[in-house]
Each structure stands twice: as structure tokens, then as C-alpha cells.
Amino acid sequence: MMNKFFITSVAAIVATIALGFTVFFLFVLDSKGHPAVSSAAPATPVEQTEAKPEHPYLPPSMDDVPAGEEGELIKLGLKEHNETNTVLDGNVGNNLSCASCHADGGVGSSLDLVGISKTYPQYNPRAGKVVTIEDRINGCFKRSMNGKPLPLDSKEMKAMVAYYNYISSNVPDGTKERPWAKVPKVEGDLAKLDVNAGRELYNKACITCHGVGGDGGATGLPLWGEKSYNIGAGMARVRTAGAFIKNFMPKAPMGGYEAGSFTDEEAMNIAAYINSMDRPDFPDKIYDWPKGDAPDDAAYETLAGKKGAEKK
């Protein structure tokens, strides 16, 4: 009789082979800028975590969503996440969705959200107070999607929270850190940023998907202009955008580059170029980091920062 060790080993090998075939299929974007998965690849969140085989708490499959009202909310939440700017068009002011940053339902190849609901409430330096997951979701609606917040008691908000709770259900209660979702920072001197160098790199590795005018072209996402994130979004920060670019861009090999091949300096220069372009304002930005602890790459001056400078 085969022992448990042998059976486990065989299972691991089979899983690894299956994983290799799954990874082969590239993630692409549909005509509206939403994630689209090849028909040859599985389409439920648990099968889309192939990019992170080291994940300690894989989310349950959407096939296991409970029946009834709770299950319907979870399914709606996934749809809202992936198709935010069409399903919730009254609250989104641009062409972006949650999946623009958090691919494949938030369990895919970029900015993993598994476990996110277990980490809230938590202190947010930009807000200067403890915020709930609902607050954080609405922050994305107001900033990244340049829109309006969802009512806290609305079905739409409850659905998004239900979905994030579901993909986080295997993560232990009390979890505050999510190392599997941590994005390595980019380091560099902000005073040495080179926008022209960033433009050259953009034209080599980004322009095909994101367009000459940064409007997303036919299939990509808008990186500046009225249909992109506003100045108050996290991506308006050079280090934040640079880290995303370095770790996740381009989605497919382009201009001699692939995800992870940019140096910190190159990624920050691309981010500097993108964020040097016009985008929507966020009037409430002056109230950010009220304790005067804005990061060095904050894209704008705040009241607290101005008062701190005056005291000096």
C-alpha cells in the first residue's frame, strides 16, 4: 500500500505540472480595460492564484460559495470588483475598476487582496485615524476611480465586503500583516528623477497598451487624463506607482522588457513621467496626512505639511 508521503508527493508534482500549464496563458485586458482570462485557463479566483504558489492561505473556490443571499452577495461583489466602472458606473468617474490594480478578483498576479478584510479596522496615516474596510473601499472610489463613495448600508457595499471576506476566509483572525501580498519597494533619490528618460521607456514598453496620449488606446488602461486616477490616488505617488511598474509591468514582454526587469531607477522614471501629466484634481487632498507625516513622494502639499514648514 502506498504511504501518505508518496501520495502527497505525487499530488504535489501533479499540481506543479498543472500550475506550469496555467501560468503559460497570459493575462490580457478586454476592450473596456477589465481583466479577461483566456478560455483555456480556469476563471475562478482560486485557480487564478498561479502567480503566487507560495501563498499560505489560498482563497476558497467560487464553486464553493454558499447558496442563498450570502452567496449572491459574494458573487455580486466579485462582479463589482472586476467590472466596477460598468456595474457601478454611477460611482466611478473614469475608466478604471478595482481589477485595474487588483487583478483577477484580487487573488491574481498583482496586488493580492487575500486576507485584506482580516486587517481592518486599521490605522491609516493618510487619513490620520483608524479606518474600516468600508472606508478603504470608498477611498478607492473617490481617488483611484475619481468617483463617489458607496453608501455604507447599500447592497453594493455589502456585496464588496462579502466578497473580500470570502476570499479572506482561510486567513486566521487577528492577522495584521500579509507578507504574501507585500510589494517590494523601489529605492531612489527623488531629486534625480528623469522625466525624459521615463518618456523614452514609456514609448518602448508601455505605449502599445496605454496609448500615445496615455488614454489606454484600444485595450489598455488610461494612465492620465480625465479617464484616469486623480491626484489624490496612491498611484499619483512616484514610489507607489514605481513599485507597481517594477513588479507587474508590462503584462507581456514589450520593447525588451517584462515584469520585474525594470531597475528601480527606470520604474521610478516611468512613474515620474506618467504622473507629470494632467489628471483630475482631488480637492480634499489638502486634508491628507493631518499629523504631518506625509511620505517624501506625496504629490501635493497638505495643510499639516504647510503648517509644519512654517514652524521651521
Keywords:
single chain; about 300 residues; mainly alpha; two-stranded antiparallel ribbon; globular; disordered N terminus
Q: State the helix count.
A: 11
Question: Could you report the average pLDDT, rounded to the nearest whole number?
Answer: 86
Helix content bin? 25-40%
What is the radius of gyration? 20 Å
Distance between the amino and carboxyl termini: 77 Å
Shape: globular
What portion of the residues fall into strands of 2 or more residues? Answer: under 5%
Q: Tally of extended strands?
A: 4
Strand order of the largest sheet: 1-2
Major beta sheet summary: 2 strands, antiparallel
**Order of secondary-structure elements:** HEEHHHEEHHHHHHH
Low-confidence stretches: 1-53
Structural class: mainly alpha
List the helices and strands and how they pair.
Elements: H1 4-24, E1 28-29, E2 35-36, H2 69-82, H3 84-87, H4 103-106, E3 122-124, E4 129-131, H5 133-142, H6 155-167, H7 195-205, H8 207-210, H9 238-248, H10 264-275, H11 303-311
Antiparallel strand pairs: 1-2, 3-4
Description:
The protein has 312 residues and is mostly helical. It has 11 helices and 4 strands. It has helices at residues 4-24, 69-82, 84-87, 103-106, 133-142, 155-167, 195-205, 207-210, 238-248, 264-275, 303-311; strands at 28-29, 35-36, 122-124, 129-131. The strands form 2 sheets. It has a two-stranded antiparallel ribbon with strand order 1-2. It has a two-stranded antiparallel sheet with strand order 3-4. A hairpin with a 5-residue loop joins strand 1 (28-29) and strand 2. Helix 2 crosses helix 6, helix 7 packs across helix 10 (264-275) and helix 9 crosses helix 10. The longest helix is centred in the N-terminal third of the chain and has 21 residues, at 4-24. The protein is globular, with a radius of gyration of 20 Å.
